[in-house]
Amino acid sequence: MRDVAVVGFAQRQMKDFDGSPSMAELLVPILAECYEQTGWAKKDIGFWCSGSSDYLAGRSFSFVSAIDAIGVLPPVNESHVEMDAAWALYEAWIKIQTGEVDTALVFGFGKASAGVLRRTLTLQLDPYTMTPLWPDTVSLAALQARLGLDAGLWDETALAEVVNRSLTDAEKNEYAVRAGGSSVSELLARSMFADPLRKHDCAPVTDGAAAIVLAAGDRAYDANQRPAWITGIAHSSDGLHLGTRDLTISGSAQRAAAAVGGTAGVQVAELHAPFSHQELVLRSALGLGDDVQISPSGGALAANPMFSAGAIRIGEAAKRIWDGSADKVLGHATSGPALQQNLVCVMEAQENGSGK
């Protein structure tokens, strides 16, 4: 296996647009920031891969207009996934493993404010048995939260504690669209949004984009003095039908964690948990102890741009390697209803030589 590291990361997260900028206009400064971080130019990128959704944009092949941000010349080697950019990162990691390229830039983007997100995401459900009922994502998450409450796996106080910590941490994140801790008691006094979830238990609708740069071997040290070496990456999926799985656990997250060799030694974990109770499910599934710092960026409860939020978790985790505050970190991404699909990326620092 080739040694691959995360060496660059840029993001933008915002509540809504007034019609401008377009996704291409939003991506141009993000790609420029990645070039500045690494000292590279477009010609130094061997492979490009993006993540987005035509359903979210409301038109076919919407990603084609966004890749205008890359530029026409010189021609590029480009691919696309109809998923969060974390899965584009996985494809790029595989591309580098083939030996065809040594570097890659992955990016994701989405304008969730253009429609009613909780209804748009209903289209990812089974088209014969579930979509015709139009169960929206918030309502499905509320059902999941209720199952955990009734089983005694968590209580409303535990959910409020997750929110309070996340929004307090988000005060230090310039890209957070929602921030400001309160108190557990004050959060519990707020009205229900989708029983048993309050509005602060649900990720805000967020527009945005992000990009991550990968490099193999010595190329990583050309771009970053302390690369975040990917020592394990895997993803897994549970069944789409909610009645075929226990929603209070995440089997796919457990399998992904096992595939990367477990999470022992992880100091910081950026979890893509769009709902407060899902952080509790993921902590258990991934085997993260109380000594692990969870989502110091504020996580998805502070901002959750569709199709880049998972990649942002990986980028935020990698930053902890770059600044020396951690030696082993975990980035996590999810997709599908009620944590159906999960991707885990473990990164480590290697002070001398290349990664493991």
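(ticket continues) Second input and output from the same batch:
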Amino acid sequence: MPYLDQIDPIAVSLGPVKVHWYGLMYLLGFAVAWWLGARRARAGRLPGVTEAGFSDLMFYTMLGVVLGGRIGYMLFYGFADLLNDPLSLFRVWEGGMSFHGGLLGVLAAIGWWSRKHRLHYFDTVDFIAPLVPAGLGFGRIGNYIGGELWGKPTAGTVFDGWGVVFPRALPEPFASMSPAALRAQFETGALNAFARHPSQLYQAALEGLVLFCVLVWYSRKPRPRYAVSGWFALLYGCFRFLVEFVREPDAQLGYLAFGWLTMGQLLSTPLILLGLYWLWKSRSSPTLEPESR
């Protein structure tokens, strides 16, 4: 039997101030990344960089995530809206963040910080890569709690009879029903045909948990330059490309080609190619040894 997603997206209400689970998931992802990165910095995995220097790096990467994520979303997924209303770029409370835009923002921040500290760009990228999946995983859980970015319907497929019913994805008259009335309809089986893949949880598991475990394990000892970054790009690109097959395409874009290619797949393809290239390049690159402390 499908599951009805009726989780309140608001974690805490303090008068007019409402704290959403999505924001808390982002904070939790940053906290885990900061904790793991500080441990690696103390272990000398980024020679010449103190914990204070690492804190600066995290601050700039967080700015890169937020600014790049928002700008990337408007360019990749809401360009028409941006042209019609340029101020929509600043209405972040309306939602809309792009991983690929956030990644570009992080890479730009790393470039500026690495030049300031006179470090090889990819030594810093390799250091940061294992920290990123925590934020990806918690962010996707936030998407699930918020009932957004859902997957395709499971009815009429091999997954028929299984999935999650997302209230925001329902047609009328169900979309206007109160939570109690919707629950009553669900109990009768009237909503089973609207069950969807919980693609947010698929992404949380693959791009978050699996990628985190692989990269932390792989980077537990020094690796050649480009290797950790290569595995991150390759695995994330493949995971995202695959999940897009069961994720509902963005309504304003639909499929871009062949009746199945999505914007997420289009943006992930360069990551897959870059990952393969960086792994090839790592075969003849030096290994950054930890600094003794």
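Agent notes: The longest strand covers residues 10-14. The chain has a mean pLDDT of 91. Closing as not reproducible unless the customer responds.
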